[in-house]
Amino acid sequence: MLAPGTDLDLARFAIGFDQRDRARLHALWERAFESQVWSDGELTKEFEAAWSAWNGLEAVAFNGWTGAALAALEWAGVRGETVLCPSNTFMATPLAAIHAGARVEFVDCNRDDLCMSFDDLERKVHALRPRAVFLVHIGGHLAFDSHRIADLCTAEGILLIEDCAHAHGGEWNGRRAGTFGDVGVWSFAPTKTISTGEGGMLVSRHAEAIELARTFRNYGKPDYATHGLNFRMNEFTAAIGIVQADRLPEIVRWKNEAARLHVDPVHSSRLQLPDGMVSGLYKTIVFEPIERSTGKVYDEPCHRVLGHPVDLPNSDWVAENHWCVPLYYRPGGEEGMR
């Protein structure tokens, strides 16, 4: 439950869109109508530039997380190779690797952050010699082992793909999600901290990964050297993304203030972040049963879903021992929290 006296509006699902942005959004849509370019046009480029300005890396927009993930995996060259993936994640993560032709092996998580365990990863890197590792940031914060995992992958010549589907607004001492690995992939699905309805983004410090992503999302045009498909973002979706990218810092600040005021006084078991880390609070995670809960982030680990005979005790423990407090963006300052 939320703190006594808290307006139940905070507990009702709401897409993270500020209604004050409607006029600006409609003006952007008018630009799309006037341009007669409805897909992969100037608004898409503006959204990519806005995301790059926030994230710090060059960005390529997609029509969903899946296209961005498949492009990352194609660039990583995982077909016929092993990809290590946390079991405590959405099934989209291992399924993307499987569809890219990889052999997926699962890694345990930590109990304190729900994210990939460095110790289990290190063991499996030496035993399985993977081509790539999927690092998934769970709930809005960054994985606590991000630095060590990135250093390990660099030392071992393993490509690191960050699944940032939850990590809008997540940073650690100013370093944003998606910048620890070789490639980062994002989702803008309806429930995310910011949303475009459907949509995705790929970021990378590697020019060749960016170049491949741009051709991969458009069938490999113009020379079809890359065997991509249609993962283009349309201009109307990109317009929402432009508005949402500008609003992201305010949404993250609002959610963190609301959590401090209305969640922390009641739930001392709320997931605790390291110094210098900021969460976008896609999920407000507590380690105690609560009456009003949105359920679990994930209630069944992927290795259980796929029937992999591997012992991952922390992933099983996390599935049973965390809950999520409902907390949704309601703009309007303090009035929006009453």
Percent helix range: 25-40%
Q: Total domains, how many? A: 1
CATH homology-level superfamily: Type I PLP-dependent aspartate aminotransferase-like (Major domain)
Number of helices: 10
SS content category: alpha/beta
Shape: globular
Sheet with the most strands? 7 strands, mixed
Give the overall pLDDT as a whole number: 94
Would you give an account of this structure?
- The C terminus is likely disordered.
- It contains ten helices and twelve strands.
- The chain is of the alpha/beta class and 338 residues long.
- Helix 3 packs across helix 4 and helix 5 runs parallel beside helix 6.
- The strands form three sheets. It has a seven-stranded mixed beta sheet, sandwiched between helices. A three-stranded antiparallel beta sheet has the order 7-6-10, with no helix packed on it.
- It has a single domain, classed as Type I PLP-dependent aspartate aminotransferase-like (Major domain) (Aspartate Aminotransferase, domain 2), CATH 3.40.640.
Summarize the structure.
The chain is of the alpha/beta class.
Please specify the SSE layout and strand pairing.
Blueprint (H helix, E strand, L loop, with lengths): L21 H14 L6 H14 L2 E5 L2 H12 L5 E5 L5 H8 L3 E5 L10 H11 L3 E5 L9 H11 L2 E5 L7 E2 L2 E2 L6 E5 L12 E5 L2 H10 L18 H28 L14 E2 L5 E3 L15 H4 L7 H9 L1 E3 L13
Helix pairs in contact: 1-8, 2-8, 3-4, 3-7, 5-6
